[in-house]
Amino acid sequence: xxxxxxxxxxxxxxxxxxxxxxxxxxxxxxxxxxxxxxxxxxxxxxxxxxxxxxxxxxxxxxxxxxxxxxxxxxxxxxxxxxxxxxxxxxxxxxxxxxxxxxxxxxxxxxxxxxxxxxxxxxxxxxxxxxxxxxxxxxxxxxxxxxxxxxxxxxxxxxxxxxxxxxxxxxxxxxxxxxxxxxxxxxxxxxxxxxxxxxxxxxxxxxxxxxxxxxxxxxxxxxxxxxxxxxxxxxxxxxxxxxxxxxxxxxxxxxxxxxxxxxxxxxxxxxxxxxxxxxxxxxxxxxxxxxxxxxxxxxxxxxxx
Length: 304
Hints:
The chain is mainly α. Helices cover 81% and strands 0% of the residues. Helix 3 packs antiparallel against helix 4 and helix 7 packs parallel to helix 11.
């Protein structure tokens, strides 16, 4: 599991590649398509794993799903090697600092975090992903306690959510960014997430809950795509991998701490809906930061 986690760093590299090959005005649309492809994998993957994993608990096995996953990874490696060209031309690669020149590791993180706008975007990524992890980790237990849902209902709901993400990122993000801009759409995504959590906390039957989770899922899809695009635009041509990798580090640190926060809330005995309210509270400073950045950008444009 540790090795698969370490190898999971290919997603920010893919986002950096997509940023390199797309013009700024098309970047959100391109990243939305990449995000939609990832979400499509989350639809097909569980289906294939379920079909290969055995008919019941007694015959369940990880062997065939594991071999299938390894085969898919091999196909992806082969495709990347033969089909993908280098995203940066030689002159831009020459501008990039050599390995170890910036100190690496924490020094790179600190260097990116010290930039005024990027430092605030890193804070948003950390808090937003902590909130999302706090909700998503707890959702199966919350739904089981509130509505008596089991694996079948939870599985179907996640399939619905993945399809919603594919639709939002693949079809809606591009036109919406062109019309409203990334910062406004990002604020709308974060606000939608908060609204969805509050609706879920008040839901008395699963139909209302489904409305709430539609808001949270649409909000997270809008957030993830527009945020990656916004962060990539703060980076120079030769450092997008560094900047996006640093942003993902901050975000996944929040995702790592989110489940721990759920455990603390459970130990404190604050009730079934406490994780939903906690996640909503974590989103509020994110919205405030993005509103300030948007106002500052509008002020600079007016001065110009």
